[in-house]
Amino acid sequence: MWLNRKIIANLHATSHTQDRWQQAEKMHDKQMNIRKINIQDIEKLKEIGKLTFAETFSSENSEENMKEYLESGFSTEKLTAELTDQNAEFYFAELDGKTIGYLKVNVGQSQTEIRDKNALEIERIYVLKEFHGKKVGQILYDKAIELAKEKNVEYVWLGVWEQNPRAIRFYEKNGFKAFDKHVFKLGTDKQTDIMMKLKLNEKKPVANNV
Fold it and tell me: Which of 68, 117, 150, 163 is 20 to 30 A away from residue 31, measured at CA?
């Protein structure tokens, strides 16, 4: 029996949709865990850090600049200092024991800029590419906001590369607004990050009874 191309295309589309539903159901059935990590997790952090950064930025940057940043930004010495810093915290997103993303937040003098005692910085939220679109980033973001509220800070801020529209849309959707810019150096390349801020517990204006 012969099928025309339209029917074949519809069959392929239906099959692809079913595959996505099955993947989502499998993801839902598995146990997602957000875990605070420590110095014993340094090798896992180095692995997930390098992999997610490379997946996110390799296509937009030179091999030389990427190599330089990955070696310095995720060196054992640097990660050891960050993991033992009392004003910095790392969390893994784990699915059935596999690390699929991570979060880093800073307060006080450990913030990369501003260093306001009433602020918390989200320095990093990265998720493995295969888990994009599965709410892992949102879960890590929600954890950061939970931490900010626990620490009773007034606002949360972060820097996001101006050429990363996907991340910018994500933070805008969560209520962040741009307030400044700063330079982020990737190897020899000076890049511009948009600084974004979210005020917590901002009171809404009360309507006058007339």
Answer: 150
